[in-house]
Model the fold of this input.
Amino acid sequence: MATESLTSLKWLSRFLDETPGDKVIGGIPRQVPGVCWSRVNPAVVPKPTLRLWSNEMAKELGIRAGEEEFLSGNKISSGMDPYAQRYGGHQFGNWAGQLGDGRAITLGEVEIGENTFELQLKGSGVTPYSRFADGKAVLRSSIREFLCSEAMYHLGIQTTRALSLVTTGENVVRDIMYNGNPAPEQGAIVCRIAQSFIRFGTFQIHTMTGNYDALRKLVDYTVKYHFPEHSIENDNKIIDWLKEIADETALMIAHWMRVGFVHGVMNTDNMSIHGLTIDYGPYGWIEDFDLNWTPNTTDSGRKRYKFGNQAHIGAWNYARLLESISPLMDRPEKLHQALEYYYEVYEKHNNLMWGRKLGFEQFNSEDDEIITELSNLLQNSEIDMTIFFRLLSSIKKPDVNDVKFAFYNEEKILEDEWNSWLNRWWSRVNGNPDQEKMRQSNPKYVLRNWMAQLAIDAAEKQDYSVANELYELLKLPYEEQLEYEEKWFQKRPEWAKNRVGCSMLSCSS
Ligand code: AMP
Ligand code: MG
Done:
């Protein structure tokens, strides 16, 4: 039983000690040139109440549940030294200047054995980087972050984690669809955790403003603590370090494609230097397979961040990271090697991923064709991605009737095309796919948009049972869990098709 208190953990403040910071303390929104952070205290909230708790994350930290006063930022213990990180970023392809933690405040880092974890409160008030907003978060988006980050972890996908969700006892006003209908919503704070919350944009801001001294200190810091097996003493070493970031980023995106996750806002400020899925906003999960789908209504015109674009956007963002490191290079043209490596390594991860999803013993170059054919068929059918791959992981003969349940409209199945593809696949796997392995790559349960919405609807009425049930369910996404099958192994219900929060999401949170 973990019995430690948050206050008794070993707190560090390495980032504050070793990178340049703001001399001013406090949270009036402003430009803070040349620094990596500003000290700021979380806002005090009227009635912090613990609502969701990750017993697994707590176990890793070795702490007990409760302590709302700390998890809401109402109290700061000795050792904590709260700050907001400064970063910039390209938003939807355009340089946006200084952004930074506008509604996130890091309490500090804790050392647990070999690891260090940064603990950050999301939604605890104004910081110098809040621009025009209030620094708060609503229950709706906090539940989405809590459930999805824990679900991603259990899917085996690199992600920031969540420890707790606390409601604050105060209302926050939001205009959910930005259409002139502001309304009060319950406020909440998630305590999220990662090795660090350093982003591509954390480096970019210094290069874009010509602060190369700050850039060097930040890079030195990042490599020293987070990539200790690397160094930046010459161009080749820098490239090696950057290649590792390419590898992690590509792997993360290949995993997103595997499970049908669409991040929704892949701005460079939302790209973790560790290749962690970060900043859960208007993300969504593919139900009816569609490479052109994006959950983010703000992006519904250009669809820059649609499902099928994510690998390409990963490269674009990575190229911005490379540019931001270029002032440290003697021969910046060498950075092309790193970008080429991203493409290579993405292809490697992507092939491996498809091979596993389809039960190949090994991926061959001829397999491109069977995959392209499948992708086209999925695109042209109204078919549920998760259910299709899961059923494929247990069918005993190549017959479309055995995956019928995955189709949204059973009247409109392209039977001949499907049977022809299934037969092709069946002979590729010699009539004997390793379905046990396939089931480890094709989850049965993911956090479908309407599932999260049901948890939110209940929680807004003080009922957290749905959120807790989903939290438990999604700890074992690859297991059959037959007791939940009828309820959660389901296609999108009719009511969710056009509902805000399910098919339409915005950045409002
Ligand atoms: P996002 O698109 O959520 O990653 O946020 C983009 C930028 O807006 C980041 O710098 C956030 O910190 C900031 N931001 C988002 N929501 C708020 C808010 N409620 N208050 C202050 N800043 C915010
Ligand atoms: Mg963000």
